[in-house]
Design a protein that fits this description.
By secondary structure, the protein is of the alpha+beta class. It contains 14 helices and 22 strands. The longest helix is centred in the middle third of the chain and has 19 residues. Strand 6 and strand 7 form a beta hairpin.
Length: 454
């Protein structure tokens, strides 16, 4: 096992990883930007290192500063969390070259996960259904028009190097394609450093379902069941749950086997997620591999009893997988709401500021992962995710009741949050029946399409 771990992240995930280190008896090193001097994760870590100014490019994305901090602190492993450098193959390789273990997938895994087209080709060769798409990157509007015309609208323009729902444009017809194509390439270049895009057939009214996978250094891969991630806004997940109300035991068996086949095909190591779209007839299609711990990992932890961050650390230090999904007594229902500092009534405008009121919920069936505290001032420089509220019960109906109660208890002021939106969703009959698709959120924010370019 490792002797000391540096946590290369901030916010709630840094907090989460440091807690796991503490429980494992491993000293931790927190890094922080100048804007995060008052962040809560610094108080839990054994050591703290400032890695630069507020701008992420000069701190949390600064590989050299983080590697230097790791060397100076004498750590033997780095946990990247999610976001920032978590899926950066160059950073994983830099860790290796510095003699520090990267707690996550291999550099080759990360490279392949970022290359959507190559990943789809490998997966298709293993007999796993994939969404029809252009065979390679598309370099011109004319080429995109030809492919989309042959494929049939609607289509999606996707960044080849994208992920996490970013860099995606949906086109209902040729006019939209012509307009969106240059925008998508520009976004891909700005977001991922690579302007290659491809065209993919848009599946009508799908559900977004992913499978948690784990792989060890001996080539064994297992899955830990599915997560329902269909409630999204602009391809960003808002509410996740496990299991999915739409997945039968038979479908779970087939999708779980497909997820493991995908991971084995790329020799996947450590924790990751295989994501699928499922149509109304129960047909599923491989979408992508997310090579990191996911924001929504707590719902899997609550239904399987497995601490995924501790498993990441154990596997990275050479541990073996000696169990499979059938050995796990998957039990109950877990649901997660991502609490963002945004105002749903003002087009989800970010709402930073000082927390003059902070009253966290609690009680049976409630888990709260957050870095907030009374008096904390949210920096303007970072992601708006400020907390993950998770409910758990033996049934989905019970998990919804607990979530509704916890949302009402959760007091945050004066900043605006997405809590009011989630309360409306919890009361929605379709949501309560588990009857929804990826367009569900539009009934709550009907002007989404009009504001697409904001």
């Amino acid at each position: 096992m490792f002797s000391k771990i540096l946590v290369a992240n901030r916010g709630e995930i840094a907090h989460r990883i440091i807690r796991a280190c503490r429980e494992l008896g491993i000293p931790s090193v927190a890094v922080y930007s100048e804007a995060d001097r008052d962040s809560l994760h610094l108080t839990l870590a054994d050591e703290q290192v400032c890695i630069g100014p507020a701008v992420s490019a000069k701190s949390y994305l600064n590989m050299e500063s983080i590697i230097d901090a790791a060397r100076a602190a004498g750590v033997d492993a780095i946990h990247p969390g999610y976001g920032y450098l978590a899926e950066n193959g160059s950073f994983a390789r830099a860790c290796e070259e510095a003699g520090v273990a990267f707690i996550g997938p291999t550099p080759d895994n990360l490279h392949l996960a970022g290359d959507k087209l190559t990943a789809k080709k490998i997966v298709q060769e293993k007999g796993v259904p994939v969404i029809p798409s252009s065979p390679a990157g598309v370099n011109s509007v004319a080429e995109a028009e030809k492919i989309a015309g042959d494929m049939g609208y609607p289509v999606m323009i996707k960044a080849s190097g994208g992920g996490g729902g970013r860099g995606i444009r949906t086109c209902e017809d040729r006019e939209m394609l012509v307009e969106e194509f240059p925008v998508a390439r520009m976004e891909a270049r700005a977001g991922f450093g690579n302007d290659e895009v491809y065209i993919e057939k848009c599946i009508a009214h799908p559900r977004h379902i992913e499978f948690q996978i784990l792989g060890d250094r001996h080539g064994r891969v297992i899955h830990l069941g599915e997560r329902e991630c269909t409630i999204q806004r602009r391809y960003q997940k808002l509410i996740e749950e496990s299991p999915s109300p739409a997945v039968t035991p038979e479908l779970r068996e087939r999708m779980g086997q497909a997820a493991v086949a995908v991971a084995e095909a790329v020799r996947y190591f450590n924790a990751g997620t295989v994501e699928f779209l499922v149509d109304g007839d129960g047909n599923f299609y491989f979408m992508e591999i997310n090579a990191r711990i996911q924001v929504e990992h707590p719902v899997t932890e609550l239904t399987t009893g497995i601490d995924l961050v501790k498993e990441q650390i154990r596997l990275a230090s050479g541990g073996e997988l000696d169990y499979g999904f059938n050995d796990i007594q998957q039990r109950g229902w877990a649901m997660e709401c991502r609490i963002n500092a945004e105002d749903p009534e003002r087009n989800f405008m970010p709402s930073p500021g000082k927390l003059e009121l902070y009253r966290p919920p609690g009680g049976f069936g409630v888990r709260l992962d957050t870095h907030l505290y009374q008096g904390y001032e949210l920096p303007v420089f970072y992601d708006s995710l400020i907390a993950k509220l998770i409910s758990y019960d033996l049934t989905r109906e019970g998990a919804i009741r607990i979530m509704r109660r916890a949302l009402k208890e959760f007091g945050i002021a004066p900043i605006k949050t997405t809590i009011p939106l989630y309360l409306r969703i919890m009361d929605d009959p379709s949501f309560q029946r588990g009857d929804f698709d990826t367009g569900f959120i539009k009934r709550f924010v009907p002007d989404e399409e009009d504001d697409e370019d904001d």
